[in-house]
Specification:
There is one protein chain. With 185 residues, the chain is an all-alpha fold. The chain has two domains: 67 residues; 93 residues, no CATH class.
Length: 185
Amino acid sequence: MNVEEATRLIGIALSTLPNVQQQMSDEQIDRAARAWSLILPDMSYQRAQAALMRVLRTHKFSTLPQPAELLQALTDWRGLAEPTALVAWGEVVQAFQRCYSQDEPAALATMSSRTAYVVKHMGWAELCMTDIAQTGVIRGQFCRLYEQSQERERDVAALPPGMRKDLAFPEPEERKQAGMTSREE
């Protein structure tokens, strides 16, 4: 997002906050817009506008929303598009039921990216050889690792763009190189 786009978004936000609008000078609005564009350079105007609409619908304070609130709104939406840990575990169970126990690449290909990522780290062969009595324990470990992976991705998304590469969830090409494929790719 550039400064002009940030200024437009701040104008939208201020139109819902008449008391704040009266208190902010043009110089303060300009400084806020420069800060928003600096903090959110990789957020498109369309996404930022959608996030702002969501924030303004739930914003209870008579203050200008912070860039972190827009980022949180986008992160929350991303999370809604992704399966929950228990749904992801269902993908693992389906792979078991399809008798992919001897064919790890085929099993991983039936799973979403994050599910395949977690399964790869837990070890497909180890999961397949788990005693039926231990399934609940393994499911719990999988769900915990899956949720930690989601949390890490949210944390990385909050970082400035230049710092993300070293800490991010592996990109699809990196997953392929590591032998992790998924049905999404």
